[in-house]
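Re: beginner question about structure tokens

> Can someone show what the tokenized structure looks like for a real chain? I only ever see the sequence side.

Sure, here's an example I had lying around. Input first:
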Amino acid sequence: SLAHPDKSFELNHGPAELLRVAPVLTAEERVFQVFGSRVLEDLVSFGPVTSSFTTAEGETRDFRLSGFISKPHVHKLNRNSIYLFVNGRLIRDKVLLHALTSSYHNLIPPACFPFALLFLECPYSEVDVNVHPSKTEVRFRHSSFVHDFVRDALRETLMESKPISSLP
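And the corresponding structure tokens:
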């Protein structure tokens, strides 16, 4: 439901309704529906941030990143609050996870993790989704470019969101 705010979703477990969300116009509204206002208050919205590179064949590859990341004072003890999407697909990826944790270097304790919803859009030829049978793991064709792009975009967002000191 997070990757498709324009769709309605319903999740039940036996007789219990776990999630019911109506279509909304923005990702921010969907985050509110799924996680509530307290979580939304602790997040910084960013993007879309774009970057591109030219391949050896002279073709331009465009990458776009958007989403929500927690402010540095919010941190978790595990990775359960990290949601990574590539071209609308929920995935697990070590490159993106490392880029995310690197962007928080010296901002949160080393054994802690941020809350994050990252949406990366890229050409389908730049990502291999056939790495794992469940299609949840991916491999990027230019992983170092993706890593640096994501890390730098997130770090810049964090630096821009830092509160301004009132001390002279």
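Each token stands for a local structural state, so reading them left to right follows the chain. The chain has a mean pLDDT of 91.
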